[in-house]
Write a structure and sequence with these properties.
The structure is a single chain. The chain has 189 residues and is mainly alpha-helical. It folds into 2 domains: 1-53; 66-187, Tetracycline Repressor, domain 2 (Orthogonal Bundle), CATH 1.10.357. The chain has 9 helices and no strands. Helix 5 packs across helix 6, helix 5 (84-101) packs parallel to helix 8 and helix 7 (124-141) crosses helix 8. The protein is elongated.
């Protein structure tokens, strides 16, 4: 049993290392190349193919990882605030800042065709997941609010955040504050 656990840990470590390197390559403007990743990680291409299937499988794993990390950051920003307006302003600020500093996140949210979509077309699934997490935050922190208002506020905040990414209207702080204000007005808090 312990031998299997050690092998699993080694596999997880390799997967993490490969995805770290793949993300750095993509963010730096490179493309995913199995031979290059094999060279940089010191393993055979066959090892990479065994782990990820193919280049598309690797890209899908990378997109899922980046998406989860991005959504976790937004959720942490929400959780750091009690007031819904402040929480959604913090989450929007975190999302816009991450997108501004991480080319892969920006490309995913802007629906860049060069980024493989494992979810379907464009940023819609990421927006839906962000809205779902925002609604979850509101349901946990403010169970007194109406469910329809919660869904509307969280969905609107997610879409406005992507809108500000695609068509910026000034500094991130201003956009984040505006999004928080919209959420407060929808919720009447």
């Amino acid at each position: 049993m312990q031998r299997r656990s050690m092998a699993r840990r080694a596999r997880d470590d390799l997967r993490t290392e490969v995805l770290d390197i793949a993300e750095r390559l993509v963010v730096a403007g490179g493309r995913l190349s199995m031979p290059e990743l094999a060279r940089r990680t010191g393993v055979s291409r066959q090892t990479l193919y065994s782990e990820f299937g193919d280049r598309d499988g690797l890209a899908a794993a990378l997109v899922l990882r980046v998406t989860d990390r991005f959504l976790d950051g937004m959720e942490a920003a929400l959780a750091g605030e009690r007031d819904p307006a402040a929480a959604f302003a913090a989450a929007a600020g975190a999302a816009l800042t991450e997108a501004a500093t991480n080319r892969l996140v920006e490309a995913m949210l802007a629906g860049d065709a060069a980024v493989p979509s494992v979810f379907g077309s464009g940023a819609e699934p990421i927006v839906a997941a962000a809205a779902e997490r925002g609604a979850g935050y509101l349901r946990r922190s403010r169970p007194d609010l109406d469910d329809a208002d919660i869904d509307l506020a969280a969905g609107t905040a997610a879409r406005l955040t992507v809108s500000h990414l695609v068509l910026p209207r000034g500094p991130v702080e201003n956009a984040a504050r505006e999004i928080g204000t919209v959420v407060a007005r929808i919720l009447r808090v």
